[in-house]
Amino acid sequence: MIVAFSVTPLGVGEDVGEYVADAVRIVRESGLPHRTDAMFTSLEGDWEECMAVVREAVAAVEARAPRVSLVLKADIRQGVTDGLTAKVESVERHLSS
Fold first, then answer.
1. Where is the Thiamine-binding protein domain positioned along the sequence (predicted)?
2. Structure confidence by residue, pLDDT tens digits, 21-31
3. Residue 55 has pLDDT above 90, yes or no
4. CATH no. for residue 57?
5. In the chain, which ranges are E strands?
6. Residue 64 carries which DSSP code?
7. Strand 41-44 to strand 2-10: parallel, antiparallel, or no bridges (unpaired)?
8. What are the two backbone dihedrals, phi and then psi, of residue 8, each rounded to the nearest 5 degrees?
9. At residue 23, what are phi and psi to the nearest 5 degrees?
10. How many domains are contained in the chain?
């Protein structure tokens, strides 16, 4: 499964980078394949692994912010591994032909 999620602290002002870094640090320490871009962090693993990381990332932000917004999207597909890379490679192949 691939989970794309965004954790945003509310009530802390406009500059939220240090709070988001707390969440991304949890993802990086998880050992799961992941990618972070300007809007979302994606990670790949089984349901329990992914949801545990999301829960911990939210808790890290929640520990410092009075309110937290979570946006989550999941691609649940049994038997697929390395989807983070394979999906992008497929699009790139189509773009180059």
1. 3-92
2. 999 999 999 99
3. yes
4. 3.30.70.930
5. 2-10, 34-36, 41-44, 67-75
6. T
7. antiparallel
8. -125, 125
9. -70, -45
10. 1
Neighbouring C-alpha atoms within 13 Å toward the C-beta of 21: 4
Q: Furthest-apart CA pair in the chain: how many Å?
A: 49
Q: Residue 58 to residues 7, 32, 78, 91, 95: CA-CA distances in angstroms?
A: 6, 17, 26, 31, 36
Domain that holds residue 55: 2-96
**Do 62 and 1 meet the contact criterion of CB atoms below 8 Å apart?**
no
Copy the structure tokens of residue 6: 């965004």
* Dist. CA 6–CA 12, nearest whole Å: 16
pTM: 0.90
pLDDT of residue 32: 97
Rounded Cα gap, residues 61 and 37, in angstroms = 18
